[in-house]
Amino acid sequence: MNKLIGVILIIAGVAMLIWTGFTYTKKEKIIDAGPIQVSADKEKSVNWPPYLGGILVIGGIVIVVTSKK
Questions:
Q1: Full-model pTM
Q2: Any stretches that span the bilayer, and where are they (predicted)?
């Protein structure tokens, strides 16, 4: 079980090193006055620091190496 968690951390860490974030579009109401509604698409972004992916990779390697066979 520990090896599985370690491998998942390694895969997640490598993915975080390759993709340092993502963007998505969210529809937000600008005006809501009874029957009149105006909305606009706003682009939001989620970013994380690359060192976080490195920490996950190192942690996953440590878990895999130290897990009992």
A1: 0.69
A2: 7-25, 48-66
